[in-house]
Write a structure and sequence with these properties.
The chain has 5 helices and 9 strands. By secondary structure, it is α/β, with parallel strands linked by helices. Strand 8 and strand 9 form a beta hairpin.
Length: about 170
């Protein structure tokens, strides 16, 4: 049975957006992480392409910043693998700045593409823009009585109830 896309829950001001950086250059990943954390984002880093799809689909970040040249599995393959089951934003950040690379990345499902080196404020502006657009995405309508689960949060479309840890909210 095909995996259902996760319910997107709009972020509130109290809940920082979650970003997964998939980058094998540890120094660059640390710099981007520090910069985005200083602007209120919750950041995780993955250094290998072959581990990225499982992490993306398990953790369901709001945004993935994805390098193309990665050990184990390249970023284009990561994007191709997760896009059918991942509704978060994907921003490709890569040294491959040729037009053909950008077009292929966008056609495979990336939402935006930036070539390295990138100015921090430009990256932040793109991240903010993508996350604003993702907050406008609404959850797909569900059949009567279908339950959607995100961690310990359960929503029942039939009874129109939401439970957290077994308690109705």
């Amino acid at each position: 049975m095909a995996a259902q896309p996760a319910l997107r829950i709009p972020m509130t001001e109290d809940t920082p957006s979650r970003i997964l950086i998939v980058e094998d250059d540890a120094k660059l990943a640390a710099l981007v992480r520090e910069f985005l954390e200083s602007h209120g984002y919750d950041i995780a880093v993955e250094g290998r392409g072959d581990r990225a799809p499982e992490r993306i689909l398990r953790e369901r970040p709001d945004l993935v910043i994805l390098d193309l040249m990665l050990p184990g599995l390249d970023g284009l393959s990561v994007c191709r693998e997760v896009r059918p089951r991942f509704d978060g934003a994907i921003l490709m950040l890569t040294a491959r700045g040729e037009e053909v690379d950008e077009v292929v990345g966008l056609e495979l499902g990336a939402d935006d593409y930036l070539a390295k080196p990138v100015r921090p404020r430009r990256l932040l502006a793109r991240v903010n823009s993508l996350l604003r657009r993702m907050d406008r995405v609404t959850a797909p309508s569900t059949a009567a009585g279908q339950q959607l689960r995100v961690g310990s949060l359960t929503g029942d479309s039939g009874s129109r109830t939401v439970c957290m840890g077994g308690e109705t909210m």
